[in-house]
């Protein structure tokens, strides 16, 4: 009886094996292909940038002098024969390109004409660092940007001359995963008073906690028009005002100051609010970004 059972098991196993061998798909090759994902162009660029400077930890709502968060740039807008900075922020992602939100380059005030990099103080009083002011040669909005629906709110700014990478000016990496980290940091030049539109000359920072999309939709009351999967929500410190359009939400590794950008601030409810900000999710636009920045 035992011999018969063993024989039947062997016959069954042989039949299954024969079916597998007749399959047109090579299971081993399929597994290897799935396991070996091709490295993205943005990931290759990040590897070439290498680690950033060692971060200095300060417990303050303002970024301190000394070289932290070197990816932040301020967009400059022509006003009365001068350039006004601080209305919108951006992120340096290569020598030639800054990433920002589309509504900052398509607003009623007109498009920006300059970027300022390498300083945390737009007036130059705190860090006493000579900023890099670079003209903008071209602005590329996402082709599907919709102002009314507030989706695809992302744009690339092409610089007229390459940024000079220094202790104070460094590019950020791009976050490539679909899952949003629970905890991030936001930096940018934003409003400092609830009652008016005064913007901070000093770079602001705040912790960001990701918010469940269902909860965020309920908070904004968008039952008829849900937030898009190319967006995510996050709350910042309630003692801080809105860190500003185009400001980055990012992560860092240990004491490495090289930021990996997860999102850009698209819109929010302003100072002292517990209502989440809505961010443009960078990982949803990697193909578009890479086709322009690293063709």
Average residue-wise pLDDT = 81
> Architecture, according to CATH?
Beta Barrel
Shape descriptor reads globular
Low-confidence parts: 1-25, 30-35
Total domain units: 1
Question: Can you count the helices?
Answer: 5
Head-to-tail CA distance between termini: 69 Å
> What structural category characterises the helix and strand content?
alpha+beta
> What radius of gyration results from the CA coordinates?
24 Å
Question: What string gives the helices and strands in order?
Answer: HHHEEEEEEEEEHEEEEH
In CATH, what is the homologous superfamily?
Trypsin-like serine proteases
- Report the sheet with the most strands, covering strand number, pairing sense and barrel closure: 6 strands, antiparallel, barrel
Within the largest sheet, what's the order of strands? 1-2-3-6-5-4
- CATH top level assignment: Mainly Beta
User: Beta-strand level of the residues, as a percent range?
Assistant: 25-35%
Helix content: 10-25%
CATH fold description: Thrombin, subunit H
Number of strands: 13
How would you characterize this protein structure?
- The protein has about 300 residues and is of the alpha+beta class.
- The chain has a single domain (about 45-295), classed as Beta Barrel (Thrombin, subunit H).
- Helix content is about 20%, strand content about 25%.
- The protein has five helices and 13 strands.
- The protein has helices at about 1-20, 25-35, 40-50, 215-220, 285-295; strands spanning about 70-80, 80-90, 95-100, 115, 130-140, 155-160, 175, 185-190, 205-210, 230-235, 250, 260-265, 275-280.
- A six-stranded antiparallel barrel has the order 1-2-3-6-5-4. A six-stranded antiparallel beta barrel has the order 8-9-10-13-12-11.
- A hairpin with a 2-residue loop joins strand 1 and strand 2 (about 80-90).
- The chain is globular and about 45 Å long.
- The relative contact order is 0.18.
- The model is unreliable at about 1-25 and about 30-35 (pLDDT under 50).
- This is Trypsin.
- It comes from Popillia japonica.
- One of its GO terms (biological process) is proteolysis.
- One of its GO terms (molecular function) is serine-type endopeptidase activity.
- Belongs to the peptidase S1 family. CLIP subfamily.
């Amino acid at each position: 009886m035992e011999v018969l059972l063993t024989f039947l098991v062997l016959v069954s196993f042989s039949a299954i094996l024969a079916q597998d061998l007749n399959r047109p798909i090579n299971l081993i090759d399929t597994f290897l292909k799935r396991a070996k994902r091709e490295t993205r162009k943005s990931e290759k660029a990040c590897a070439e940038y290498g680690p950033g400077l060692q971060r200095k930890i300060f417990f303050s709502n303002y970024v301190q002098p000394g070289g932290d968060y070197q990816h932040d740039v301020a967009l400059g807008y022509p006003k009365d024969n001068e350039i006004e900075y601080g209305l919108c922020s951006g992120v340096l992602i290569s020598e030639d390109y800054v990433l920002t939100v589309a509504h900052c380059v398509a607003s009623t005030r007109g498009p920006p004409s300059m970027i300022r990099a390498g300083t945390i103080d737009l007036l130059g009083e705190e860090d006493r660092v000579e900023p890099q002011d670079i003209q903008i040669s071209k602005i590329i909005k996402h082709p599907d940007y919709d102002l009314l629906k507030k989706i695809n709110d992302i744009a690339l700014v092409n610089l007229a001359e390459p940024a000079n990478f220094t202790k104070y000016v460094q590019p950020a990496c791009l976050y490539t995963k679909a899952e949003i980290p629970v905890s991030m940091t936001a930096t940018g030049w934003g409003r400092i008073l609830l009652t008016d539109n005064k913007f901070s000359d000093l770079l602001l920072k705040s912790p960001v906690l990701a918010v469940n999309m269902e909860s965020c939709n309920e908070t904004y009351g968008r039952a008829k028009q849900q937030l898009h999967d190319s967006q995510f929500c996050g709350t910042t410190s309630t003692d801080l005002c809105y860190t500003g359009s185009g400001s980055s939400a990012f992560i860092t590794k240990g004491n490495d100051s090289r930021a990996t950008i997860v999102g850009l601030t698209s819109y929010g409810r302003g100072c002292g609010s517990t209502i989440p900000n809505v961010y443009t999710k960078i990982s949803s636009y990697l193909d578009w970004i890479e086709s322009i920045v690293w063709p």
